[in-house]
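Hi R.,

Here's the input for the guanosine-5'-diphosphate complex you asked about:
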Amino acid sequence: MPVTAVVGATWGDEGKGKITDALAASANIVVRFQGGRNAGHTIINDRGRFALHLLPSGVFTPDTINILGPGVAVDLAALFAELDELLAAGVPAPDLRVAHRAQIVLPVHVLQDQYEEERLGAERAFGSTRAGIAPFYGDKYMKIGVQAGDLLDEAWLRERVTRCLTARNVLFRHLYQQPEADVDTIVAGLLAHAQRLEPMLCDGPALLHERLAAGETILAEGQLGALRDPDHGIYPYSSSSSPLAGFIPVGAGVPAASVTDVVAVAKAYSSCVGAGPFVTEWFGDQAQQLRQRGGDRGEYGATTGRPRRVGPFDGVATRYGCRLQGATRVALTNLDVLSYLPEIPVCCAYRVDGQQTQQLPLTRYLEKAEPVLDQRPGWQGQDLTGARSWQDLPDAAKGYVDFVEALIDVPVQMISVGPHRDALIYRD
Ligand code: GDP
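And here is the predicted structure with guanosine-5'-diphosphate in place:
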């Protein structure tokens, strides 16, 4: 049985949560393989509206096993708060497992993220979500991180935390002029979560191998989008872990050859949170019109509440992102949002220094790229939210999907026409 990947084709916030939620219904296991609480998936189902940050989207499907793989940045306080919120809303306790090799986000990672953004100032800051993700992954690759399983051995844990603080406290005191972090306080904070964590700990990859061999279905849920990949994305406006399907074998722990079905999720327009070049960006009233209509409550970040930058569909960035993901099919979301426009612009190429290109250039060229737009006919005033089959869509909407499909060169197999779970069209 193959592993199905649900991953972002662009900057993140593409609507992966909804697509994963829809596909999770037929999966035995949903596994997260990278990132942490720095992104948010919005899921709207019969139990209400939920913004998931760390929990896999399979938590609403009874009998689904949800795993945080070794590649995830696990913030225990945030994880348990999210879980409690779900339980308080009446969702039955999900089967949640944490890979014992997954690493733990420490309070010092969050502090350093904040201190560094403040030190950089508004002009130079990266627009971090300040969830500690960059310092966390920095420590992991510096080999001074703390693994989830370490919480079961106090002496070992203390040694790991001490190592993690040695150089950091020099930075805290001298670069940021902040108080040093205290080993005892951090260890006590971690141990306070150990009892609740212990029954969830498992060898995630071993479990996945076993279940794959038994023919079970696995869904690997990505966070953020391809353009945030540290190696291939818009560096340095990238994230610190790879959101690519190619990272699933590493971050979840499944055989590389098992990831054969890659669903890249893309919005029918563009949206982006944070700093960095965003070629098709709209401003002023034009942006506000789209922002207000986007998503289920307007385009505001699920984690930070920040207004998202919005603009027309970017065919250059999305084709590049789909290729990075190795997409075998695309889920196009938020098509309903465009119903207010008489004509819909689509970016088919960039103009950089007077030259037209369809390739995504290096960041320093992307900063000055201008979009080459094609105007597509709209379906103004026709509500798409009730459409449940390809035939239900107006001709202009079908034409728009076909145009996008030709541009990105991957079959658009799912079309989302509203925030709710049911507002989804499967196309043969
Ligand atoms: P994710 O991080 O990729 O899961 O995306 P987010 O949840 O941050 O953002 C997607 C937004 O779009 C959320 O507000 C969803 O409820 C909403 N959404 C998803 N699909 C659709 C759709 O087809 N139409 C509309 N109007 N909203 C959608």
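One thing worth noting: DSSP finds twelve helices and 20 strands in the chain.

Cheers,
M.
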